[in-house]
Design goal:
The complex is a heterodimer of chains A (215) and B (227). With 215 residues, chain A is an all-alpha fold. Chain A is built from eight helices and no strands. Chain A has a single domain, classed as MetI-like (MetI-like fold, Orthogonal Bundle), CATH 1.10.3720.10. The N and C termini of chain A lie far apart (60 Å). Chain B is flat, with a radius of gyration of 21 Å. In chain B, α2 runs antiparallel to α9. Chain B has 227 residues and is mainly alpha-helical. Chain B has one domain: Orthogonal Bundle (MetI-like fold). Classes of the chains: A mainly alpha (215), B mainly alpha (227). Chains A and B meet through α3, α6, α7 and α8 of A and α3, α4, α8 and α10 of B.
C-alpha cells in the first residue's frame, strides 16, 4: 500500500515541527530551572552539595541520551505509572539538559572574578543577595552565548523522542516514509526543516561569542 | 512501588552485552579514525586557493552540525539505496557516524591550526620548505597535540551517540540491549545494565585520555613561553 508523496505530506512535516519546538521549549525551561540549581550546587560552599551536583553532571554526560529516555520511559511504567511518550521525552530531555546547562553555567559563575564575591561580603550582603544581585547578573553575560549554542544541541536531541514513539518531526518523517517509500525526499525535507530551525540559532550564538570576546 | 527487579534474564545474556560493548568500541573507534581523516582532508581543502572547495567544506560542516544524527543515519541507510547504493545497517552506521564526527573534528582541527603561531610557518618558509611540508612537519602534529583534549571529549560524545544507530538495527550495545529486552520484557533491568556499561566505557576513556595527554602530548610539546 504505497501511495505517492503529496503536498499535504510536506505540510504534515511542517506542522510536526511545532512538536519539536514544544519539546525543545519544555526541555530548555525545565533544564534551565534544574540546571541553575545544579550550577549553584556545583559552586556552593557546602562540600556535599558540590559532590552531589558533580555526580549528577558526570552521570548524565557520560551515558547516552537514548538510554536516559528509555530508562525514564520504562522506569515510569515499572513504578506503576505508565507515561505518555511526550511526558517521558520531556522529562528525559529536561534531566539531560539540566546536566549540560549546569556545567555551562558552573563555568560562567566561576569566571566571575573572586573579588566581586569578596566585595559583596564586605558590603554585608546576605548569601542569597551575593548570588542573586552580584554573581549571577555578571555570569549571565558570559553564559548567554554557550547557552544559545546548547539550544541547537537540544533541538537536535528532541529527534530521539521519535524512538520512544513521540510524533514529532522525525517520527512524522518515518511515518510518511513508511506510507510513500520516498526516503531520500522525506528525510531530506526533515533535515531541511531541522536545519532551518538550528542554523540561525547557531549563527546567532557565534555572533554573541564574537561580541563577548571583543568585550 | 511493588515491582520486583529481576536481573536473571539480563545476566543470562551477559555474553550478548559484552559482544555489544565490543561492537560499540569498534564502531566508535573506526568512525573516529575515518572522521579524523575527513577532517584532515577538509583542512587541506581549506588551505588551497580554490574558493569552491572552501564553500564545500563550510557547507558540509554547517549541514552536519545543524541536523540530528538520527536523520543523517536515516538518510544514509534508507535514502542511499533508492539512489542505487545499498548498504548493510552496520556499514550505514559506520558511514553516518564517520561523516558526523568528521564535521565536528573539522572545526576542532581548524581551531588547532589557527592556534599555531604564524612565526613557525614563516620559519618553515625561511628554511625553504614547501607549503605541503610545512603542513605535514610543522602544523599537523602540533595541531593534533593542541586539540587532543577536544578530540578526546569528541570521541566520548561519539561513543555515546553511537547508541542512536540501533534505530536502523546496527550491531552494537544498544541493539544488543533491545534484543534482550524484546525476548525477556525486562526493559528497565536491561537498559540500566547497558547504561552502566556505557558509563564505565566513558569513564575508562576519559581516564585513559587524561593519562595520554599528561604523559605523551605534554611531554613532547615544546614548552610555550607565556606571550
Amino acid at each position: 500500500m504505497i501511495r505517492a508523496f503529496e503536498w499535504r505530506d510536506a505540510l504534515f512535516l511542517l506542522l510536526a515541527l511545532r512538536w519539536t519546538i514544544l519539546l525543545s521549549v519544555i526541555g530548555m525551561a525545565g533544564g534551565g530551572v534544574l540546571g541553575l540549581a545544579i550550577a549553584l550546587g556545583r559552586t556552593s560552599a557546602r562540600g556535599w552539595l558540590r559532590v552531589l551536583a558533580a555526580l549528577y553532571i558526570r552521570v548524565f554526560q557520560s551515558t547516552p541520551l537514548l538510554m536516559q529516555l528509555f530508562l525514564v520511559y520504562f522506569g515510569a511504567g515499572m513504578l506503576g505509572m505508565p507515561v505518555e511518550p511526550l511526558t517521558a521525552a520531556a522529562l528525559g530531555l529536561t534531566l539531560n539538559a539540566a546536566a549540560f546547562l549546569g556545567e555551562i553555567w558552573r563555568g560562567s559563575i566561576e569566571s566571575v572574578p573572586r573579588g566581586q564575591e569578596e566585595a559583596a561580603r564586605a558590603l554585608a550582603l546576605k548569601p542569597w543577595q551575593r548570588v542573586a544581585l552580584v554573581i549571577l547578573p555578571q555570569a549571565v553575560r558570559i553564559a548567554i552565548a554557550p547557552t544559545v549554542g546548547f539550544l541547537v544541541q537540544l533541538i537536535k536531541n528532541t529527534s530521539l523522542a521519535a524512538i520512544i514513539g513521540f510524533m514529532e518531526l522525525t517520527r512524522t518523517g518515518q511515518v510518511i516514509n513508511n506510507a510513500t517509500f520516498r526516503p531520500f525526499l522525506v528525510f531530506s525535507l526533515v533535515a531541511l526543516l531541522y536545519f532551518a530551525l538550528c542554523w540561525p540559532i547557531s549563527r546567532y550564538s557565534r555572533r554573541l561569542e564574537i561580541r563577548l570576546a571583543r568585550g | 512501588m511493588n515491582y520486583a527487579f529481576q536481573f536473571r534474564d539480563v545476566w543470562r545474556s551477559w555474553d550478548e552485552l559484552l559482544w555489544g560493548v565490543f561492537h560499540t568500541l569498534q564502531l566508535s573507534a573506526l568512525a573516529m579514525l575515518l572522521g579524523l581523516a575527513i577532517a584532515i582532508l577538509c583542512a587541506v581543502a581549506r588551505m588551497t586557493t580554490v574558493k569552491p572547495l572552501h564553500w564545500l567544506v563550510t557547507a558540509y560542516v554547517e549541514v552536519i552540525r545543524n541536523t540530528p544524527l538520527l536523520i543523517q543515519v536515516f538518510l544514509i541507510f534508507f535514502g542511499l539505496p533508492t539512489l542505487g547504493l545499498r548498504l548493510s545497517s552496520d556499514q550505514a552506521a559506520l558511514i553516518a557516524l564517520a561523516v558526523n564526527a568528521g564535521a565536528y573534528t573539522t572545526e576542532i582541527v581548524r581551531a588547532g591550526l589557527e592556534s599555531i603561531p604564524r612565526g613557525q610557518i614563516e620559519a618553515g618558509q625561511a628554511l625553504g620548505l614547501r607549503r605541503w611540508q610545512i603542513f605535514r612537519k610543522i602544523e599537523l602534529f602540533q595541531a593534533l597535540a593542541a586539540t587532543f583534549p577536544a578530540m578526546s571529549s569528541q570521541f566520548i560524545l561519539l561513543l555515546l551517540a553511537s547508541s542512536i544507530v540501533s534505530a536502523v538495527g546496527a550491531t552494537e550495545l544498544t541493539g544488543a540491549a533491545n534484543d534482550i529486552q524484546s525476548r525477556s520484557f525486562r526493559s528497565f533491568e536491561v537498559y540500566i545494565v547497558a547504561t552502566g556499561l556505557y558509563f564505565a566505557m566513558a569513564l575508562a576513556f576519559s581516564a585513559l585520555f587524561f593519562l595520554i595527554e599528561k604523559y605523551v602530548f605534554r611531554a613532547h610539546l615544546p614548552s610555550r613561553r607565556p606571550s
